[in-house]
Amino acid sequence: MKNLIALFSFFALSMAMMGQSSEKAKGILDKLTAQTKAYKTIEAKFSFTMENLQEDIKEQYNGSISIKGDKYKVSLMSVNTYYDGTVLYTHMLDAEEVNISEPDPEDEETLNPATIFSSYEKGFKYNFIGEGTADGKAIYEIDLYPENRDKPYSRIKLLILKDEMNIYSIRQVNKDGNNYTIIVKDMKVNHAIDDKTFVFDKAANPNVDVIDMR
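and the corresponding structure tokens:
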């Protein structure tokens, strides 16, 4: 009986600690989201790693992103992606081809990297793991679990710079064994960015095949 009481006591204590952990994680994420939404523009350089520990595969690439409102440009793996808020341009440099489309609003909300700093407001359960350091800087570590179990990933790990309240890294753990990690190398905010940045320039790329899928 004593063991049973001890077990229930431990379970109750664990549940209480999990509740506090969830509240602390949400508080940090709320601050992160509020600060990021206050930025007029974001420009960042990052590393993108794909790895599968079972298959002993690890590939790393460098990329860059520019964000202004819901507009963005991403350069990664020989592909430049532009989104002007309505039209999506996918320029495959090696193939000298660009696809033009108008993404579904629901898909755009999920795929738009401009939401990378605020997409954790809903659809997740949170767990505050603790504090630590990364590259000599103090960080918060938070795990997120999707409420929708049909998602292809089981967990997202965020490292958030404590003093700057910006994302340091995002790690997505997928159910198929493939994991993806983004580490923000350099980030600048509130710099002027011309809207032309988010539109594919046909005149500057006369030899590129344009495939309009609208």
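(Above: one complete record from the training split.) Residues 1-19 have pLDDT under 50 and may be disordered.
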